[in-house]
Amino acid sequence: MTERLRVHVDPDKCQGHARCKALAPELFELDEYGNAHEAGDGTVPPGLEDKVWLAKANCPEIAIDVIEE
Ligand code: F3S
């Protein structure tokens, strides 16, 4: 069974620490203020599951949600 993951950044919590972008550049984009949002619709491509959990664990603001679908 392959679990499918989706990532979401809560814009109210994100303070622009950018650790997510450093750890998983494929999954996050930064806006002009340095705040992150998920790339595309947030679907985590196969093979990037470890990176998304790592990014979530390293966000100091606990702004990253990973949804298992
Ligand atoms: Fe924001 Fe956390 Fe990334 S504060 S820029 S979601 S590491």
From TrEMBL:
* InterPro entries assigned to the protein according to its UniProt record, in alphabetical order: Fe-S_cluster_ET
Q: Which UniProt keywords apply?
A: Electron transport, Iron, Iron-sulfur, Metal-binding, Transport
Q: Does the keyword Electron transport apply?
A: yes
Pfam families reported for this sequence? Fer4_15 (PF13459)
Q: What is this protein called?
A: Ferredoxin
Native source organism of the sequence: Bradyrhizobium guangdongense
